Amino acid sequence: MNSILVLVVGIGILIAGYVFYGKWLAEQWGVDPKRKTPAFTEEDGVDYVPAKAPVLMGHHFSSIAGAGPINGPIQAAVFGWVPVLLWVLIGGIFFGGVHDYGALFASLRHKGQSIGEVIADTMGSKAKKLFIVFAYLTLILVVAAFGSIVANTFKAAYTESGAVDVAASSANATTAMISILFIVLAVVFGFMVYRRNVSLGVSTIAGVVAIVVCVVVGLNFHPIYLSETVWMVIVGIYITVASVAPVWILLQPRDYLSSFLLYFMMIVAAVGVIGSALMGHASLDIPAFTGFKDTLAPTGSSLGFMFPALFVTIACGAISGFHSLVGSGTTSKQLDNEKNARPIAYGGMLIECALAIVSLCAVGYIWSRYADGTTVVPTAVFATGISEMVATIPGLGGSTHVLYSLLVLTVSVFCLTSLDTATRLARYMFQEFWLEPGQTYKEATGYKAVLTNPVVSTVITVVLGIGLGLTGYSKIWPLFGASNQLLAAIGLLAVATWLGKVGKNFAAGMSGGIAYVLDEDWDFYTRVNKDMVSLEPVEHKYDVSLLKDLIREHVEATGSPRGKEILDNFGEYLPKFKKVLPHDYDKMLRLIAQMEEKGEDSEQAQIEAFYAMKNAANK
User: Residue 76 contacts by C-beta under 8 Å, 6 or more apart in sequence?
Assistant: First the structure.
């Protein structure tokens, strides 16, 4: 199979999925560009900070990617390129994209709070507590796994006598030096954009030039040679500071700048695949299908049977539970407009799928060396495959070493980004576990005030994560893969449950505690408590006019196809509507006021108050 065909067809399908399915989801969910996002309504200058779409896209993608879309497809290639490609395309468009987009959208409608709050809203506080515990433990695994990966890309090699092997350590020392310079650059970039108000365009041009300078300096000056353990400690200190610092000073600018490394990597990969194809070297040597069990085991350890190994190994690049934590944890607190949720969440997932396909092409190019165990570390496989494909292009034969170093650097930057984002998310989870709904850590008292303090909760997380990471990456990754996919299932279930709850009220308009309910099955009377409410037909001209206005406002706000259908055929649907009048009208109004004080918008407050009275009466 020719790799250029796999790449072009795969990307074409992903684009079609974004244009058609992604747009359909936005219409069905009622994305409202006019609605203020939590970045504005809850702005605090630390976690809730509005970010421009390109900046937030850089943060979101850099955070969700890490090494996942590279490691997974390369390791799962032992089952053949067809299973890998099918799972990436089907999983990304219909599972991962929906999961990521849904988690972000649900969080936006819950004041930027985590997916745990969405679960509390739909399944109760006990379900939320269980989810938070599981999610927090998964994030500890993320910190451990990615901390170990970063330390391994920075560590020095030693001779038998215990001295530093400078020649063998040169590539890692280069990566470490460039990464350090990159962090300094990000702080300067954030200060210039957010405190000196330098335009994003000018800052971006200067930032890209500075990235090149950092790379040149790092390639020629890299004096830091430290052991893996020392680097783990340094990384722990870094993520402690990074995860409590305001997002504008490091997280946003670093992730935005790192996105340009991604664009560079994707362009280099595309040039490599296309160029090598034109030179007659783009053969995808992986068998289409090798069987339902991994008998190849290039790393010395078999993945086992394709089910569930394929779906656990390829997480990022198909569907990953970690993404729901990023979307509902940091991205939702920075999104400036609901319309940008689709390109950032759904689009970001599909870009990750494209990177997974590129990784498949890379391992396919050096398949014989991967299959016989010569080159098996996924980062090395990716960098080797892409750099050697580029080297087949006339005039670029001497670029292999430089490109290899830059590609390894890019993967390392993504891992570092995912690492401190995961630490920040774990801090949110730890705090939410101890706090009551709607309560902030500043309002906590006693031991809860200590545990929910940002610095204390972060230190606890870092100590647990880095301590576990010192046991080694290989021991952690399989456990992380399984827990990550379980988390994805829970996240998808939470989003679906929340959407189902919202959907129950789809055709119900409310005004001042009086509800207008579409009773298509003519059985609504059997499902209400007659001691609490009475039903009347919608006949008075005031009620008819008000109902029509409510539906029209709903359609204008959400673009709902169902609402438009009802509006276009209003005369046909009108006899099926019932006017619901609460007997205790004053109590209803008090409940509505209480719901609004808790942060619910007016329409949702009326709906919640109606069901609260109904449920109380039924008990």
Answer: 83, 84, 87, 303, 309, 310, 313, 314
Write down the pTM of the prediction.
0.77
Please return the burial class of 124, using the count of CB atoms within 10 Å of its CB with bins 0-12, 13-18 and 19+. exposed
Higher per-residue confidence, 437 vs 235 = 235
Sort strands 514-518 and 508-511 into parallel, antiparallel or unpaired.
Answer: antiparallel
CA distance 565 to 588: 31
Q: Is the bond into 437 cis (omega within 30 degrees of 0)?
A: no
Question: What Å distances lie between residue 49 and 54, 250, 331, 332, 333, CA to CA?
Answer: 14, 13, 10, 10, 7
pLDDT digits (tens, 9 = 90+) for 85-132: 999 999 999 999 999 999 999 999 888 888 888 888 777 778 888 889
Q: How many helices (H) and strands (E) does the chain have?
A: 28, 4
Closest alpha carbon to 243 in 141, 116, 139: 139
CA 516, chain centre distance (Å): 38
Q: Which of 85, 68, 79, 115 is nearest to 3 (CA)?
A: 85
Which distant-in-sequence residues (6+ apart) come within 8 Å of 27 by Cβ?
Answer: 559, 560, 561
CB 317 within 8 A of CB 88: yes
Residue 287 Cα to chain centre, angstroms? 32
Helix, strand, or coil (residue 505): coil
**Per-residue pLDDT tens for 207-243?**
999 999 998 999 889 999 999 999 999 999 999 999 8
Is there a contact between 2 and 389 (Cβ–Cβ < 8 Å)? no
The total number of residues shown for the chain amounts to 619
- Give the C-alpha separation, 203 to 214, whole Å: 16
Q: What are residue 518's phi and psi, to 5 degrees?
A: -80, 115
Long-range contacts of 519-527, Cβ-Cβ distance < 8 Å, separation of 24 or more: 519/576, 519/577, 519/578, 520/576, 522/576, 524/578, 525/578
Decide: 53 and 336 in contact? Cβ < 8 Å: yes
The alpha carbon of residue 550 and the mean position of all alpha carbons in its chain are separated, in whole angstroms, by 35
C-alpha 619/C-alpha 616 separation (Å) is 5
C-alpha distance from residue 292 to each of 305, 326, 372, 403, 425 (Å)? 6, 33, 20, 36, 37
Q: Which of 317, 323, 319, 311 is nearest to 351 (CA)?
A: 317
Sequential DSSP letters for 562-580: HHHHHHHTHHHHGGGEEEE
How far is 319 from 301, CA to CA, in rounded Å?
A: 24
Q: Is 575 buried (19+), middle (13-18) or exposed (0-12) by CB count in 10 A? A: exposed
